[in-house]
Design a protein that fits this description.
Layout lengths: L9 E6 L12 E6 L9 E9 L4 H4 L20 E8 L9 E4 L6 E4 L5 E2 L16 H14 L6 E5 L4 H12 L3 E6 L2 H9 L5 E4 L5 H8 L4 E6 L3 H8 L2 E9 L3 H4 L11 H5 L3 E4 L9 H13 L7 E6 L4 H9 L6 E6 L5
Parallel strand pairs: 8-9, 8-11, 9-10, 11-12, 12-13, 14-15
Antiparallel strand pairs: 1-2, 3-4, 3-6, 3-15, 4-5, 5-7
Helix pairs in contact: 2-3, 2-9
The protein binds NADP nicotinamide-adenine-dinucleotide phosphate.
The site of NADP nicotinamide-adenine-dinucleotide phosphate has 33 residues, from α2, α3, α6, α7 and α10.
């Protein structure tokens, strides 16, 4: 029997047209659907938190270039943390907490594929979408497997106050590097240095970014953890160190552009024998559990802070909250806590 915690209505968010520039409320529509019924082998999941990800904008375009896409008429893709309320699958029982890419809706049926049980005694439920979820795992593997910081290494992280960047910079510090965070406000910069232990914070909206980097990293930059691309990446490339690494995690500044642009300063990679490295977190799926254990241990030891930027709302608030990411309004992982759900 199902034990529904909310009003039993299933609201779903659909994209109605390709966005121009930033996606906004006019690009989406909320529709109400009947409560889905799980068949044999399936479960019914009640969403408690919706993950709000910058990367979504990248796949909302009229292009066949991406494996995952959202096209007009599609349910908006997105990660969910929620609770099993009905199970006809032996691997899950009612009351289990799970995460998965179930889309922007209150309820979803799943056959268990891509659904992960999470232990809320280790970390609170929304953290499994953030520091203990894809954002933290991305930071962990990109830093440890590719940037490989240590004592004497200077690492620059842009998008540093965001979900991935805030964890990446802290891991760099834990591993002994000097870490410089680039973000879009003094207030977020203060958070990085005073609460997260970054050595230096640079506000890219103030002053000459290149000059500030040269001052903060007199021995040049050994790794650039790039979340945003665009001018911020371009200016940083001029100061890459010999055999440095440019880790291409994401390019948020380009996702809203009709024509994405690459950095003209790539020529410095040649003279400095540096490399740009592509990266997709799912390549490391078989090591996720071990990484989560390490991340949780660092939190327990007080070395790592995970922060979720929780906004109370409903499925229909998703477009507005999504837009806020592009205005730099989040610190840490942006999530929506659904109004009607039981925590
Ligand atoms: N490769 C992978 O496997 C993988 C996995 C997960 C995520 N990612 C990528 O990682 C990146 C970061 O993701 P996230 O979830 O942590 O997002 P996020 O950083 O939490 O959110 C977006 C942040 O980006 C900054 N931003 C927005 N528009 C910008 C612009 N035009 N120029 C410069 N900065 C801008 C804003 O901060 P400011 O105040 O600093 O501007 C904003 O707070 C994304 O590009 C995402 O696609 C990659």
């Amino acid at each position: 029997m199902s034990t529904l915690a909310n009003d039993g209505r299933n609201r779903q968010l659909f994209m109605t047209r390709f966005p121009q520039g930033e996606a906004g409320p006019g690009d989406f529509e909320v529709r109400e659907a009947p409560m889905p019924e799980p068949k044999d082998g399936e479960v019914l999941v009640e969403a408690h938190y919706l993950s709000v990800d910058a990367a979504l904008r990248l796949i909302m375009r009229d292009s066949k270039d991406f494996l995952f896409r959202v096209q007009p008429g599609d349910l908006v893709r997105g990660g969910v943390a929620g609770k099993i309320v009905e199970s006809r699958n032996p691997n899950f029982k009612p009351g289990d907490f799970v995460t998965g890419g179930l889309g922007v809706q209150n309820y979803a049926v799943s056959d268990g594929t891509g659904l992960s049980k999470v232990d809320t005694s280790i970390a609170p439920l929304p953290q499994w979408l953030g520091g203990m979820g894809v954002s933290g795992l991305t930071a962990y593997f990109a830093v440890t497997e590719e940037c490989k910081p240590g004592p004497g290494h200077t690492m620059v992280v842009n998008g540093a106050a965001g979900a991935v960047g805030s964890i990446a910079g802290q891991i760099g510090r834990i591993l002994g590097a000097k870490v410089i965070g680039i973000t879009g406000s003094d207030e977020k910069g203060k958070w990085l240095t005073e609460e997260l232990g970054f050595d230096v914070a640079i506000n890219y909206k103030k002053g000459d970014l290149y000059e500030q980097l040269v001052k903060a990293a007199p021995d040049r930059i050994n790794s650039i953890f790039d979340n945003v691309g665009g001018d911020i990446l371009n200016e940083s490339l001029r100061w890459i160190a010999l055999r440095g690494v440019v880790l291409l995690c994401g390019s948020t500044s380009q996702y809203t552009q009709e024509k994405m642009e690459g950095p003209s300063n790539y020529i410095w990679l040649g003279t400095m024998r540096a490399r740009m490295q592509g990266f997709v977190v799912y390549d490391y799926a078989d090591k996720f559990a071990a990484a989560q254990a390490q991340l949780a241990q660092w939190v327990k030891e007080g070395k790592l802070v995970m922060r979720e930027n929780v906004v109370d709302g409903d499925v229909g608030d998703f477009p507005d909250v999504f837009q806020r990411l592009y205005h730099g309004e989040n610190r840490g992982k942006m999530v929506i806590r659904l109004q009607a759900a039981s925590a």
